[in-house]
Design a protein that fits this description.
Elements: E1 2-8, H1 10-14, H2 20-30, E2 35-42, H3 46-54, E3 62-66, H4 77-84, E4 89-91, H5 93-104, E5 119-121, E6 125-127, E7 136-141, E8 144-149, H6 153-171, E9 177-183, H7 188-194, H8 196-200, E10 206-213, E11 216-223, H9 226-240, E12 244-247, H10 252-262, E13 267-271, H11 277-282, E14 292-297, H12 301-306, H13 312-318, H14 323-337, E15 341-347, E16 362-368, E17 373-379, H15 384-403
Parallel strand pairs: 1-2, 1-3, 3-8, 13-14, 13-15
Antiparallel strand pairs: 4-5, 6-7, 7-8, 9-11, 9-12, 10-11, 15-16, 16-17
Helix pairs in contact: 2-6, 3-4, 10-15
Protein name: Putative competence-damaged protein
InterPro entries: CinA, CinA-like_C, CinA_C, CinA_KH, Competence-induced_CinA, MoaB/Mog-like_dom_sf, MoaB/Mog_dom
Domain MoaB/Mog: 4-171
Amino acid sequence: MNIALITIGNELLAGFTVNTNAAWIGNHVIQTGGNIIWHQTIGDSKNEIHDSLNQIPKDINAVIITGGLGPTHDDVTAHALYKYANDIPVFDEKYWQYLQDKLAKRNLKLPEINRNQSMKPEKGTIIPNPVGSARGLHFQVDGKDLFVLPGVPREMKTMMESTVLPWIADQSAGGLTVRTIRTTGIMESGLAEKIGDIVDALADEIKIAFLPQFTGVDIRVSSTDKDAVDQKVYEINVQAGKYIYGYDNDQLEEKVGQLLNANNLSISTAESCTGGLVGHRLTNVSGSSDYYLGGIVSYSNSVKENNLGVAIETLNKHGAVSYETAIEMAENVRSKLDSDLGLAITGIAGPRGGTDEKPVGLTYIALADGKDTMVKEFRFLTERILNKNASCQAALNMVRLYLLNE
């Protein structure tokens, strides 16, 4: 099924908001048998919306439109679509009362400006919004199905998953099978080299794409032949298994948590340059209290010494960013919080603080289990946020490999 995507919002055009909706929609649509073959991002203007709709290629079966369904003056999408679809908005008293009652339970009063979100089409249909107030719209115009959704990512995703994606799957005969293999700890070129023979031997009906990010590389395998996809995923797993931590929507912190639970082990963290990011990711997982005991963010040397117990002699002789300091951080946080494993990170995130001897991006990650303490040195880049994210990913991956005995 050929699908057009129109993302609406002045904030998207100006760059104030990153258009993550487009990437999410494209990725999920293809897995249900659809394919985004045309995409425009436009401003909050009725004329721009009409112009964009009139430019849609003839071979499009459905159009997904996001943004501009809020209650303020610049939310003009619904007005534009009613006119384009030659439909009439009708006030939905029942839904208006529902919204008022919903807000009243939180001791809030719904402003009159929200009344426009209680309109419904006379001929088209409503797309329910389980998590917000702006319902979506579904029109049929000139043989095309138009789906209009809010631009708020959480609301859009929920409505896509509950209504639009099932519709696409139902309408798409013989859709694509798509599997995403998630890897970390290896560069795209290294990964391509490892599975080069698999890629070289690909049949025409199956596609493999590398999707690199700074924290890892995803491999997307797609085909209308499900068995062929399963076979290629198996082959890739055989040759690159050490670097594969999951599939599709799996997150590294989830896999680490599952391994900790399976081994009946607990972990604590001592973080310097990452400022608590590892603890943040671990606790993003429901049930993480079963294995994550807590952490110490020892950003300054005084906290490393006084709260974490790193010897002042170690800090003076080797520095805060050193092999030796990382060892003491990992061993001491394990002891202080009485966990099975202690994970520590210390590094120079940048852009300042580096020297010729210890450049920006230098990071030490240590993992202590009470018997041995392993330490790895990493040399990341010069951009602060990238270094924090890369350090966090490398630390979680170190735990994963340890638990897998690799």
